[in-house]
Design goal:
The complex is a heterodimer of chains A (348) and B (433). Chain A has one domain. Chain A has 15 helices and no strands. Chain A has helices at 2-6, 10-27, 35-60, 70-74, 78-89, 109-135, 141-164, 176-199, 209-243, 246-256, 261-274, 276-279, 283-286, 289-311, 319-340. The model of chain A has no long low-confidence stretch (mean pLDDT 88). By secondary structure, chain B is mostly helical. Classes of the chains: A mainly alpha (348), B mainly alpha (433). At the A-B interface, α7, α8 and α9 of A face α7, α8 and α9 of B.
Chain lengths: 348, 433
Amino acid sequence: MKALLEKKGSLAVLLVIAAALLAFVAMSPLAGRGGSLLLALLFWGTVVEGCIAAAAAGTMVNARWVGSVKRELLSVRPLLLLLAFLLLLLIPFVDSYPWAGGPGLWLRKDFFIGRNLAFLLLAYVTAGRFAAAVEANGETKTVRAATYLFVFVTSQTLAAFDLVMSLEYPWYSTLFGGFFFIEALYAGFAVSAILCILVHGRPPRTDDPDARSSLSDISVLMFGFSLLWAGLFFAQYLTIWYGNIPEEVSFIAKRTSVSPFRELAVSVLFLLFFLPFPALLSTRAKSNPYVVTAVSLSILSGILVERYVFLAPAVRLNPGALAVDLICLLFLFVCVVYKESGGTPLDA
Amino acid sequence: MTDPEKYARADEDILKAMEKPGRAYLLGLGVTASLAVGGGLLWAYQIRNGLGVAGYTHPVNWAVYITNFVFWVGIAHSGTLISAVLYLFHARYRTSFNRPAEAMTVFALMVAGLFPLIHLGRSWVFYYLIPYPTERQLWVNFRSPLIWDVFAVGTYFTVSAVFFYVGMIPDLAIARRRREGIRKTIYAVLSLGWRGTGRQWRHYNMLYLFLASFATPLVASVHSVVSWDFAMSLLPGWHTTIFAPYFVAGAIFSGTAMVITLVVPMRKTFNLYRYITDDHFESIAKILLLTSLIVSYAYVIEFGLAWYSGNIFETELFRYRALGHYKVFFWIMVACNSIIPLTLFAMRLRRNIPYLLIVSLLVNVGMWLERFVIIVSSLSRDYDPYAWNALIYRPTYVEVGITLGAFGMFFMLYLLFVKTLPLLSISEIKEHL
């Protein structure tokens, strides 16, 4: 499998096949009004950009753990191109946004697609330049990491405000963008933990102190981010609940008063906080690969469910199309990481 | 130089700061004490004559005093955060800043705690804020963020003071060993019988780690609660979800600037170049830059979404902030908090200590103005358009004097600290020698 992936152009072929498949699904009657594609784009955008952002943040602070998984984290950057293509597939569905058709400077179809596309492509370019600097172990890697992080924050903020929040226009929350990029970093650390376990052996070699130390460092970050996430979650919804303004609370009411969104919304809280926080509380658990893998999967699935809860009351989602989109992107994700895995670890 | 010699030198260098003060120190102490006394007298004047001596005009009934409260709570928050977070992340440069930062936290909270009392007008009824069973079964309104403040700030002060004191115990024992007479007795009592045995160190490290872990989320929660004093209202510009993280980032930003403001002159005065290096300042300058970027992000988001929302009150408020009666303050705030810190992207400037000091002073100014602009401009443009231009709030000399008095009190307490307690963490510095 690895030999096949390492053949020149094989990855490009895979990306083209995946793009064609996703385009076919998006254009088929199954896809409905693009909700499934939007959810897949949002989730994988969060994961892919989050992986690179985790590597960039680790590089900037000279984190020891990042060296063990940096190569794998940076390998996902070709998927940004595919995500940019998926955004183009969304063009016919932008008309289903409530603001479509109305006059507006910001909420205008061409500008809407244009700015999100530009930042996805910019993320791809800056991630590539960062990866090149890391590979060369040059002095510019910190500067390029910072540049990528700028683009990452803007791209995730735009995704939150444009792709999700404007579905419920004129509802708005100023924290929504920040919430999204923090979640993306959280996802990046969760993927880092899984990669750390996979790269350094499964079950981990207990005689490998570096692997164990990297894993516990990443676990500490996940633990910290579970708290940060809970803080942001609380800050956002407490303010809205306390204000009790009809046009604000409607967003929460739609997602907490009707089944199955109500149950799913509660499960988000469990998957992203009530499970990771106690599970990673003890020092021993932080270096236990089974616990850490379970927590990482909980975080990733929590983010997926949360994106679903954000979108589902506003757009129609087809389970079949969604499954094809998610699995196709998961397969590609595994392929690009597998292709790069096992090389010499890159220094922090 | 052997290790014991290095350790003895560190003891001597750091404890030397606690010796007999010079003229410059006494002059500084005199000036700050005078300011503090002046502020106290003006407060007394206000108590005698009522809140009318402050510049409140309907609907601006929260102004400079609340600005000062938020500013000083913000300064306080960063101190423990810098110390605790850097401890949890094993950042080596922490040793240069942790003690001044922790002291700053305690003193800033003492100053901050005065302002709700000053703002009350009838300060003697402050105990109305404290929940206690009365004969008439009257309870405070637990749904009010002002009550959350009492709990949050009270808890934070307690934890910060304990964190500050616990961190100092090994150093107080060193001071005990090197001092004579009454001072030796005082340090002996304060050091709680510390002998530096393996068992004591084990317990000490466990406690310190626990306090650092406890203080870190507490810091974020406390400044979030302060932000909710505003966000829980329905006022344009206040009722916004980003306020909690925005205030926390702003608190770290202003507190980091204040730490730099305090440590740069301290290093020069007490010749601590061996223990507080330019590398350490460069590291803390990066925190200043990062938090400046977060605060600037919040500025952009607030303005952007006010425009996006199409809500006429929100739009008008943000137009007013940038172009209204307080526009000068607003633009100074933007320059100090968002534009000037960008220069710290240049490594040469991050390592230029006089420049860093200037930036930190400007950030302090910018952050004070930020709180003023948030508080006063939103109240000036609430949902009563009839009152918008009727009476423009302007601070009076009483408010300005009390504000200066607060700064005087803070710096006076800090000056007293550097002469009475070890101003750097000697035991931690020795670990890195």
